[in-house]
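Progress note, sequence design subtask.
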């Protein structure tokens, strides 16, 4: 039995997701002996030397989240994978987020809700924050959507100075959708909106990243967030580590993590439009993903002509009515795919598909991969 040393902050959603991936791999394949970094209350000092501890334990491999001097582990000849790109070293596999996809899904989400004004709240000179901002601005430009960003250079301006954030919020046009670089900043923004007496989600809609379920659910209103496939990525990292421990070649040192979907909660449960007919149409589409909807079905729910609804709908959402039907259907399909107890056939029936045999082809035409392969890659 191989010994694997794990250094991970398991108190947050990201760390727990990584642990799930390690558990899933170990339960299915390897049966490693897992040795964890000692908890903070068991350490004799703040400067306990983990490198020294690892050299004494002599594990067959290591899974490390963030450790200065991690390079020394490879110098000891111990295979290692990193669960982040922080302190990465040459020839060491690491998890890397697809920040372009994060920004794209956030912008598309706000666009589908009719927002013409958006903003980004992030941390300056941090790769994952900068990457998400760059993507968000790029995709906003394509759709002619405004972006106002607030990325302070000093972390204290985020942690201990809500007044600066409140001042920024008060100057923004309303309604506005704000994409935060992670869930932590989303919660800070909810606090700042409360201080500024701004109504969430009607004046300010807030979206985070990572979907730390406990963190997102404990605040009011609850924080909407982009769920990511951290568990699947950790599973793949374990595969890579197993190959390294068995002296097999590693083909790719970058292990990608991808966004799955927006988990909508109270902080974004709104539509940024004064057009009552468009709102009727959007609500009808979103509450009827279980039906095989047509454009005619949607038009029938409104009090205007097909041509008028088409024009006003496109102007509000940057999508046609048919595109919105497909968008909501595929979003719901992917959400149901995360429930491994449901078969593709069951999901298809649930979403109103009359010809189940064509479902995989339909899904592949949009996502570029069959549904079962998507589930395997992302869950």
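Output:
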């Amino acid at each position: 039995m191989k010994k694997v040393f794990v250094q991970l902050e398991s108190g947050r959603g990201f760390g727990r997701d990584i642990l799930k991936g390690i558990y899933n791999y170990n339960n299915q394949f390897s049966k490693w002996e897992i040795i964890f970094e000692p908890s903070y209350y068991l350490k004799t000092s703040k400067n306990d030397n983990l490198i020294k501890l690892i050299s004494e334990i002599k594990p067959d491999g290591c899974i490390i989240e963030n450790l200065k001097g991690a390079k020394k582990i490879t110098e000891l000849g111990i295979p290692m994978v990193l669960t982040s790109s922080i302190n990465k070293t040459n020839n060491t596999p690491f998890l890397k987020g697809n920040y372009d996809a994060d920004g794209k899904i956030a912008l598309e989400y706000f666009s589908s809700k009719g927002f013409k004004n958006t903003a980004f709240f992030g941390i300056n000179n941090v790769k994952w924050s900068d990457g998400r901002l760059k993507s968000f601005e790029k995709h906003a430009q394509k759709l002619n959507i405004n972006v106002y960003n607030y990325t302070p250079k000093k972390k204290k301006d985020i942690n201990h100075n809500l007044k600066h954030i409140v001042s920024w919020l008060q100057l923004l046009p309303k309604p506005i959708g704000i994409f935060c670089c992670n869930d932590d900043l989303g919660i800070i923004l909810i606090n700042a909106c409360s201080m500024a007496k701004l109504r969430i989600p009607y004046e300010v809609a807030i979206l985070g990243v990572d979907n730390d379920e406990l963190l997102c659910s404990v605040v009011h209103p609850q924080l909407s967030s982009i769920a990511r496939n951290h568990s699947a990525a950790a599973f793949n990292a374990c595969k890579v580590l197993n190959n390294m421990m068995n002296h097999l070649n590693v083909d790719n040192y970058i292990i990608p993590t991808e966004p799955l979907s927006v988990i909508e909660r109270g902080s974004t449960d709104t539509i940024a439009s004064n057009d009552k007919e468009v709102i009727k149409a959007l609500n009808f589409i979103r509450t009827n993903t279980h039906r095989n909807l047509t454009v005619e079905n949607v038009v029938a729910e409104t009090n205007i002509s097909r041509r008028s609804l088409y024009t006003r709908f496109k102007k509000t959402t940057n999508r046609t009515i048919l595109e919105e039907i497909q968008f909501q259907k595929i979003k719901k399909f992917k959400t149901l795919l995360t429930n491994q107890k449901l078969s593709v056939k069951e999901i298809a029936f649930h979403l109103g598909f009359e010809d189940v045999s064509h479902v995989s082809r339909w899904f592949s035409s949009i996502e570029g991969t069959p549904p079962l392969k998507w589930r395997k890659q992302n869950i």
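The domain at 276-378 is CATH 1.10.10.60 (Arc Repressor Mutant, subunit A). Work on this subtask will continue into the next period as scheduled.
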